[in-house]
Design goal:
Layout: H1 2-29, E1 37-39, H2 45-63, E2 73-77, H3 91-101, E3 106-108, E4 113-117
Parallel strand pairs: 1-2
Antiparallel strand pairs: 2-4, 3-4
Helix pairs in contact: 2-3
């Protein structure tokens, strides 16, 4: 019985975290995505990687839309990690690793940003 209650509370906590992550993402990116900028600040690493993947898929799909002007790059704001424990970035290294594993070309434009080449 206690195990079931624990699982139920864990599920509720996970759902609340998901809702919070969605709100943070929408708040930070409401005007940026039209400019091909994705700000991942405030998201946990797994949430950020999921958002990154979905955004790249969406932006690449836009490229195949006829008569729509598209951009070739997505600027990804990862932050420097200044607010992470010990001042060590968690998000940026994982984003870079994910991009490499998924064969994305990118440049590090600053300590807090990456410029990712969208796939055709």
């Amino acid at each position: 019985m206690y195990a079931q209650q624990g699982h139920a509370h864990t599920a509720k906590l996970w759902e609340a975290n998901q809702r919070a992550a969605e709100k943070i993402f929408r708040y930070k990116n409401s005007n940026l995505l039209d400019q091909n900028v994705l700000d991942l600040h405030g998201l946990h690493v797994d949430e950020a990687l999921n958002v990154l993947e979905n955004t790249l898929i969406g932006k690449e799909a836009e490229r195949s839309t006829p008569h729509k002007k598209y951009r070739t790059h997505l600027t990804v704001v990862t932050g420097r990690g200044a607010h992470s424990k010990g001042g060590m970035a968690k998000l940026r290294p994982r984003v870079i690793s994910w991009l490499k594993q998924n064969d994305y070309q990118f440049t590090e434009t600053s300590a807090a940003m990456l410029k990712v080449l969208l796939k055709a």
